[in-house]
Design brief:
CATH class of the largest domain: Alpha Beta
Structural class: alpha/beta
Oligomer: single chain
CATH topology of the largest domain: Nucleotidyltransferase, domain 5
Shape: globular
Bound molecules: 5'-O-[(R)-(carboxyoxy)(hydroxy)phosphoryl]adenosine, zinc ion
Number of domains: 2
Radius of gyration: 20 Å
Order of helices and strands: EEEHHEHEHEEEHHHHEHEHH
CATH architecture of the largest domain: 2-Layer Sandwich
Largest sheet: 5 strands, mixed
Length: 340
């Protein structure tokens, strides 16, 4: 019987987060310190500010995560940290902290791909998916479909050719003068709108492939705002959200069918969107497919998902070496410890 405690640290963007996770599944503590208030007046994340705020927050956040977990730091078996993709200045804060912390405790440390972390967030819930499954990872920087065959093995089936879905939410929110972050703002506004009033374009590209494009719908919203004298922001939000959700759900279900998989999953910040969650559940139900998604709290960036992923590398004997570095972008299909 193994008993592994991992401290997971995440600082890839605008959240300083730390968590203690037992055996890759049980969250013992999960602390997330958000910088939203700092960046929101600027309409987006300001990289230098983000790094400085991570510097301020990292030690107290880690301290709180360890104390809330009820363990002593000497009981930790490893430290895991996001290695990329993300803002390099932000990543370096968590990365250097994690490495120094691990060296001081004389335990291994693991640099983890943020996207792999999001996928492994599914295993922190009560109803994890069975392998193999098809996952839609939809966040501020990525819109990817994967065929997932194990905790650490994935086939990239499709990705966005331009904007990520979360990025489109953020940009549309900005166009409407609603600020950052856009996802939850658009979702809340859309609840009061009519999704069928304005029909924005759906870019299915090749319907049999799994690539995405969201720059067209974003441009169409902008044109609508510029040319329409009557601006019903709720209807614009609802129409835009529906256009994005239509494409995401269609491609995810189609990918599952191509792979003859009966299990699908959502992960990443945009997976918190309740319209997307409802729609995927409905479309999957019609097709006899089971759906798995993290709770909203675990959709956004957190340290628990990084620790959960690291567990599977650690038990396979993989740890980071002292010369590993952070990376800002994931090269296609490159995952895991030791690759950049
Ligand atoms: O995974 P995440 O926290 O960070 C990245 O890895 O990018 O995702 C952040 C993205 C942002 O673009 C944010 O607007 C979007 O997720 N998001 C949402 C919702 N909550 C967060 N998008 C749509 N609806 C939401 N409820
Ligand atoms: Zn993320």
């Amino acid at each position: 019987m193994i008993f592994v405690l991992i401290l997971g640290i995440e600082t890839s963007c605008d959240e300083t987060a730390a968590s203690v996770v037992y055996n890759g599944t049980q969250i013992m503590s999960n602390v997330v310190s958000s910088q939203i208030k700092i960046h929101s007046p600027f309409g987006g994340v300001v990289p230098e500010l983000a790094s400085r705020k991570h510097m301020e927050a990292i030690a107290p956040v880690v301290k709180e995560a360890i104390s809330a977990s009820g363990i002593d730091k000497e009981q930790l078996d490893a430290v895991a940290v996001t290695r990329g993709p993300g803002l390099v200045g932000s990543l370096l804060v968590g990365f250097c902290f994690a490495r120094a912390f691990a060296i001081a405790l004389d335990i291994p440390w693991l640099g983890i791909d943020h996207l792999e972390g999001h996928i492994n967030s599914l295993f922190l819930e009560n109803n994890p998916p069975l392998f193999p499954f098809v996952a839609l990872l939809v966040s501020g920087g990525h819109t990817n479909i994967y065929y997932v065959t194990s905790h650490i093995e994935y086939e990239l089936m499709g990705q966005t050719r331009d904007d990520a879905a979360g990025e489109a939410f953020d940009k549309v929110s900005k166009m409407l003068g609603l600020g950052y972050p856009g996802g939850i703002t658009i979702e809340n506004l859309a609840k009061a709108g009519n999704k069928d009033k304005i029909s924005f374009p759906r870019a299915y590209l090749d319907k049999d492939r799994f690539d995405f494009s969201f720059s067209g719908v974003k441009t169409a919203v902008n044109r609508h705002i510029q040319t329409c004298s009557e601006k019903h922001v709720e209807d614009i939000a609802a129409g835009f959200q529906e256009a994005v959700v239509d494409v995401l759900s269609y491609k995810l279900i189609k990918a599952a069918m191509v792979k003859k998989s009966r299990h699908i999953a959502l992960a990443g910040g945009v997976a918190a969107n309740s319209r997307l969650r409802d729609r995927v559940r409905k479309d999957a139900g019609v097709n006899g497919i089971s759906v798995h998604m993290p709770s909203s709290k675990l959709c956004g960036d957190n340290g628990a998902m990084i620790a959960a992923c690291a567990f599977h590398y650690l038990v396979n004997g993989k740890i980071s070496s002292v010369d590993d570095d952070v990376f800002s972008r994931s090269p296609l299909k490159t995952f895991g410890v030791g690759q950049s």
